[in-house]
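W.,

You were right to be curious about this one. When I first looked at the sequence I had no strong expectations either way, so I just let the prediction run and decided to look at it fresh. Below is the sequence, 232 residues in total, followed by the output.
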Amino acid sequence: MESLVRLRGITRWYGEGENRTRVLGPVDLDVAPGRLALVMGPSGSGKTTLLSILGLLLDPTDGRMWLAGEDLTGAGEGRRSRLRRRHVAFVFQQFNLLESLTAAENVMAGLALGDTDPDKARDEAIGMLERLGIADKADALPRELSGGQKQRVGIARALAMPGRLILADEPTAALDSASGESVMGLLADLARESGRAVVTVTHDPRWVGLADRVLHIEDGLLREVEHAKVPV
């Protein structure tokens, strides 16, 4: 299977001179479509830095990266922004919904990035909310939703975006156990059903059984681990 994302020799350093510190790498990684990958590790291990590089929010210091077959070596912010809009969608820990918009309108905002016909956008948004089991909340504002419902709206918005790469940063950290399990199950199902690549940063070992692969990062170094041997 052809990789959607390829990282080769990726590193990230912060600081200058004697204060220069390596926070990531060197990392080699292939991210395949249709798979859910978990990235686990202790606080400060480089998880968020890796996710930010995958999402084109942060430049690596060294190494090469390809996204959807395009070599991003030396790419400027303009090109990176265009590729991020075309290929990447985010699911945030704190939901990041627009508080003045209804659930359906938040999803429609994602559809707008894909240039969906405005006349069809609401119908498509309702369809995505229905798929996630919250079509009855389409006209509710975020303040009227539970944490689990907000996260489902966030997933629907990510699904509405054109990106084939979905990046989720601790998407269950603000949820109770039942809501967290539901959300992670949805992400796993969406990866396999939609053929998108989903990379989720989490500290919670309960979700290991839902993943296609588990990656452990510590001191900036990434390795793949067997599910039964995930460090906790």
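Here's what jumped out at me. The first strand starts at residue 5 and ends at 14. And, maybe more interesting for your project: The CA atoms of residues 24 and 220 lie 4 Å apart.

Coffee later to discuss?

I.
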